[in-house]
User: What shape does this take?
Amino acid sequence: MDTTTLRRTLTSAAATAGAAALLLTAATGASAHVGVTPDKTSANSYALLTFGIPHGCEESSTTKVAITLPAELNDAQPTVNPNWTVEKVTEQLAQPKKLADGTSITKRTSQIVYTAKAPLDHDLRDALVLSVKLPDAAGTTLHFPTLQSCEKGQTNWSEIAKDGQDPHSLKAPAPSITITEAADAHGAASHSATTVAAGTEQAAAVTDNGADARSWAGLVAGIGGLALGAVAFLRSGAKRKQTAGQ
Assistant: This one.
């Protein structure tokens, strides 16, 4: 391999390493938010919503997480988590709400509150799961403002992007999902189903177990090693040429 080819290889490796480093930084930033990952988003279906709690408030441990349900949901069933106690908060409706089956309700579950049995350390993470019946409203985005209380301070994950605003520009975005069209009789979603919103993609990053970040770190390290190896090879070749010419 001549010197020109080696230099091109080195330049390409360096550029790839830089891009991988930027992606790693982006993934780390996304995982800093409290978010939600649904196991499904089909209209009128039952879904499990996993809320990821990746860290505390600054350096303080988390003591309580209060998840507010959007007006489109009437109830949620919390999954038992041995690290937390949980309670439902209900609200009286201004007027009775008629359901699809013809019955009416006069109150709804407005909030699910998890209280840590022992404060969740800033360096640890946990996942809280709710079972909900999604509304029959494809294309609707549901927001779940979440108040995270800590031993010192709190973070209110409640910001909602305005029309035309980039959701990634929000400092404390509310966890959200977007409802897609209902599945057909065979359980497959319609071809015209809408895609899940960016907030849901962000939630997936929040609720991973760190494997993705470790994979990116390995990629960056591997590319860095390739670059260093190319430099060493280039220097070795130059030295051999210099010795041969003497």
Remarks:
- The two ends are 22 Å apart (CA to CA).
- The longest strand covers residues 104-120.
- Residues 211-245 form the longest helix (35 residues).
